[in-house]
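Morning run. Coffee first, then this:
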Amino acid sequence: MKDFDHLMSVWQGQPKPDQLSVDEVLKQVKKGIRSITTKLYRTIVAMVVIAAFAFIVTFFLAFKSTVTTVGILIVLVTMLMYLSLILRHYHILSKQDATLNPTEYLHSLKEYQKSRSKVIGWFYYIYILMISAGLAMYFVEVLEHSSLAFKLVTYSSIVVWFLFTTFYLKPRMFKNEEEKLNLMIDRLVRLQEQFD
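And here it is:
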C-alpha cells in the first residue's frame, strides 16, 4: 500500500501540460496567416505588373523572329498560370476566420497545406523551366548581333539562375512557409485537444 501511495504522489506531482490560452493561440495563428497572405498579396501585385509589361512587350513591339514572340508568350502564359495559383492560395487563406469555427479552420488549413505542398512540388519546376526556356527563346533575336562571348554569358546566366532558384532558393523559401504552417496547425491541434 505504501508503494501505491508513493506512486500516486509521484504521478500527481508530475507537471501538468501547458494549457494554451485560446486568445493567444488564435492571435498567433491570425498573425501567421496575415504574414503569409501579405506575402502572397505582394507577389500577386508584382506578378500583375510583370505580366502587364510582358503583355505590352509581346503585342506592341515588333519582332522579326517568331521564336522571340513564342518565348515571350511562354513567359506570359507561365506567369498567368502562377498568378492563378497564388490567387487561389490567397483566397483559401483569407476567406475564413479562425475565431468563428476553429475546427473547420484547422481542417481547411490542413487541406491547404497538403494541396500546396503537392502542387508546389511539381508546379515550381515546370514554372522555372518554362520561364527559363521562354527567356532563352526571347534572347535569340535580342542577342542576334551580339558577340559569341556575350551570348555565352547570357545563356550561362539563365542556366545558373535556373539551378540557383531550383536547388537553393526553392527549398529555403518553401521550408520557411511550411514551418510556419506546421506551427500554426500544431497550436490549433493542441488547442483542440485541450477541449476534447
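The longest helix spans residues 148-195. Good start to the day.
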